[in-house]
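Colleagues,

For the teaching module next term, I've prepared a clean inverse folding example: a structure given as tokens, and then the sequence designed for it. I'd like students to try predicting residues themselves before seeing the answer, so please don't circulate the second half yet.
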């Protein structure tokens, strides 16, 4: 057996190993195909038989619930005509949908037990449907007697029929659920069996393939070991050639020293740039300090402006006070107007008295002239005239007192208003003076801010100068880079020397080729090599 395997070339050995692995895959595929075909049959039965029946039962349950809701709606009192018509239409639609689903389900039933359960559901549905039809008929009439019957259906007949129907429907639904569960368990068992079978076949194939691979690898490694020893001898000469390459590398090292010199010059230029950058940083710090000072002064200006605003608010407050005082003066002037009106009333009384006095005097004169000595009888008239005169005098005294009081009050009001207005004006002037002083202070602060801005501008100018110096440093850096480029050109000549050494290494390719022939002996086998030699 070993002799036969030794004569077989590498290609055939590899094909045999691949054929074995393919056989394992074929077995796995066949088992998977037949197993999943059975699984597909079970799943198809569930999808095309069990699940549709479960769906139809659910549809029947939903439409039964809708019918029940519609019937209960018809039992409500004071239901509008529009709502009754809608409830009737909903109930008829639900009944039609229910019976369509039931008809479809009836054609799918094959088991006697399920048929018996379905017949129970159909019987109870017929009873419940009678209640619904009766409720629809009463709803169409909807007189007092119909309302009473509807209420009885709503409270008694409908719940009783619904309870009976729900019981048989739940029993039928339970049967469907148990069938679904049983189908799921069958599918699960089939899946587990296929998984275990495939795992067993896969593990067996892997173990056998692993053993074959190990044997095959050992045979290959033994042949390759001899070839590696031959290649080791060739590597000795390659080592000597590598020494020559090392000498060439020394030349490359001298060129690298030139590059280092150029890099030092570049480093010096970079140092100058670093110094300039530090100068820029210092100027930036100065600019920052100046900006902070400007910020402080601006803050102070803000505080001053706040004080100014407060003073202006005081002015507004004083103005409001003046307005209030003027309103008070207006009230007092109204009081003076009332006093004057009273004076006018008293004056009217005096005028009436004067008029009556004149009339009585005239009458007394006339009577006295007619009576002569008998005019003494008019003493009563004269006495009345005296009383009226006395009343007139008293009224005049009251008028004089009122006028005197009014004049005093008016003078007092005028003096009081004048004093208050004078005080308010003085306060306003003081506030205005304070505002002017604060405004002047703001001007001084703004002036100092302008000076700070000028300093910031000067610092920015210094930054610009430093940037120019940085530009010069960059130019020097570019010159150093040119020197590095020149050194790289000299490295190109050295690379040519290395290429000549590579030509010497080509001679060793012959030795490598002989080693390749040994590798071919391992790959193609002794039998095929002897055939080629013949």
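(Answer key — instructors only)
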């Amino acid at each position: 057996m070993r002799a036969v395997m030794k004569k077989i070339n590498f290609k055939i050995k590899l094909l045999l190993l691949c054929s074995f692995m393919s056989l394992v895959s074929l077995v796995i595929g066949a088992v998977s195909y037949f197993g999943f075909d059975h699984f597909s049959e079970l799943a198809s039965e569930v999808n095309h038989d069990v699940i549709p029946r479960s769906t139809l039962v659910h549809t029947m349950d939903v439409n039964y619930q809708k019918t029940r809701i519609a019937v209960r709606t018809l039992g409500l009192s004071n239901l509008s005509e529009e709502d009754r018509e809608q409830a009737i239409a909903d109930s008829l639609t639900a009944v039609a949908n229910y019976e369509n689903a039931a008809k479809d389900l009836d054609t799918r039933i094959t088991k006697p037990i399920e048929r018996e359960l379905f017949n129970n559901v159909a019987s109870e549905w017929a009873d419940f449907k009678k209640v619904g039809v009766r409720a629809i008929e009463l709803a169409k009439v909807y007189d007092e007697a119909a309302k009473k019957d509807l209420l009885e259906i709503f409270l008694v007949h409908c719940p009783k029929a619904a309870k009976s129907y729900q019981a048989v429907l739940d029993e039928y639904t339970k049967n469907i659920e148990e069938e679904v569960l049983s189908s799921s368990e069958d599918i699960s068992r089939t899946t587990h069996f296929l998984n275990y079978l495939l795992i067993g076949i896969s593990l067996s194939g892997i173990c056998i393939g692993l053993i074959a691979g190990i044997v095959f690898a050992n045979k290959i490694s033994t042949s390759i070991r001899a070839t590696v020893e031959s290649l080791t001898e060739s590597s000795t000469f390659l080592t000597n050639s590598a020494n020559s390459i090392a000498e060439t590398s020394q030349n490359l090292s001298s060129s690298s020293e030139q590059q280092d010199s150029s890099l030092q010059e570049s480093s010096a230029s970079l140092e100058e740039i670093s110094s300039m950058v530090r100068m820029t940083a210092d100027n930036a710090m100065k600019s920052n300090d100046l900006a902070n000072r400007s910020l402080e002064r601006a803050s102070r200006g803000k505080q001053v402006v706040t004080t100014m605003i407060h003073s202006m608010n005081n002015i507004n407050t004083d103005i409001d006070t003046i307005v209030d005082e003027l309103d008070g003066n207006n009230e007092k002037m109204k009081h003076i107007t009332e006093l004057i009106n009273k004076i006018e009333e008293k004056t009217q009384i005096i005028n009436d008295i004067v008029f009556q006095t004149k009339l009585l005097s005239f009458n007394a004169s006339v009577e006295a002239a007619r009576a002569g000595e008998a005019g003494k009888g008019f003493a009563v008239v004269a006495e009345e005239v005296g009383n009226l005169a006395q009343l007139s005098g008293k009224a005049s005294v009251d008028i004089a007192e009122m006028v005197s009081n009014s004049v005093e009050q008016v003078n007092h009001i005028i003096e009081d208003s004048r004093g208050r207005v004078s005080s308010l004006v003085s306060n306003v002037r003081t506030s205005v003076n304070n505002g002017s002083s604060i405004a002047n202070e703001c001007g001084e602060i703004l002036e100092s801010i302008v000076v700070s801005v000028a300093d910031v501008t000067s610092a920015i100018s210094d930054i610009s100068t430093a940037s120019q110096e940085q530009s010069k440093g960059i130019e020097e850096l570019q010159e150093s880079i040119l020197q590095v480029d020149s050194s790289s050109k000299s490295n190109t000549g050295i690379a040519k020397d290395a290429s000549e050494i590579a030509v010497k290494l080509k001679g060793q390719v012959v030795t490598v080729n002989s080693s390749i022939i040994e590798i071919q002996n391992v790959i193609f086998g002794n039998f095929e090599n002897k055939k080629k030699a013949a």
